[in-house]
Amino acid sequence: MAMIAKQPVSARMRSIRRVLWVVLFLNLAVAAAKYVCGTLIGSASMQADGIHSVFDSLGNVVGIVGIAVASRPADEGHPYGHAKFETYASLAIGALLLLAAFKVGSSAVTKLLTGSYAVDVTPVSFAVMVGTLAVNLGVTLYERRAGKRLGSEILVADASHTLSDALVSIGVIVGLVLVKLGFPMADPIMALVVTVAILATGYDVLKHALVTLSDHSRIPEDDVRTCVMSIAGVRDTHHIRTRGTEGEVYADLHVLVDPQMTVVAAHDLSERVETEVKRCFPHVTEVLVHIEPDDGHID
């Protein structure tokens, strides 16, 4: 499992928020360019791609709000902190993607049913699509790297969203080429391809968010066991559990020790176990260690 550099929560959240603001402005510029050009030439697929980019921008806004809430410290009502609000923001992005798919798909179907295929393909339209595609690919790379480095679900989800936008742009470019070659129906058909791409992205975003909300194991049990068994004084370990977000994991485990070990020594060992687990897995925020005597009885 890739290691994530440990940072103070506030610094991590500030870094995530800064990335989201940069991506927001880039997505807005891309969306405006594609939608305006698509409207001028009458391209359904280019307009659909522009709408997709608008939803990218709305996703960034949702992410910024989610991170603002997630960065709040633990309080009486939320003793584990507010980190899962980042995951809730990811769910909201998934919902926005489903709405975008409906908007794009219904527009494409209407064009096919009415036979409205009028598209004026110009060198400018190709230039706009190629230019915005380059921006999307750059944003995807930048955001995904930042997401992995910061252990941020919202950045990784949004990077996948932006990548789908890039793939959609490629589809639009193909559609424009086919229209130029004399196949006007290709434009709304490629808009339907856009719809499928958006739906696939929405499914992926929702799936990853549900991993956190369902308390799916974050670290393989055998990896934690290997880490803990390297500590002098630990005879065995079991009931290993991990949960939380990618960047903020909570772990708990039972450690078996010599039945004659004093309380003071057992307490010292538990602190060493906690320190070692956090060293092995820097994204672990808290470790709860339950000490048991190795007397053949397993709780």
How would you characterize this protein structure?
Helices cover 68% and strands 10% of the residues. By secondary structure, the chain is mostly helical. The protein has a three-stranded mixed beta sheet with strand order 1-2-3, with helices on one face. It has two domains: 205 residues, Cation efflux protein transmembrane domain (Alpha-lytic protease prodomain-like, Up-down Bundle), CATH 1.20.1510.10; 73 residues, Cation efflux protein, cytoplasmic domain (Alpha-Beta Plaits), CATH 3.30.70. It has eight helices and three strands, in the order H-H-H-H-H-H-H-E-E-H-E.
- The radius of gyration computed from the alpha-carbon positions, rounded to a whole number of angstroms, is 25 Å
Structural class: mainly alpha
Along the chain, the helix and strand elements come as HHHHHHHEEHE
Low-confidence stretches: 1-7
Number of domains: 2
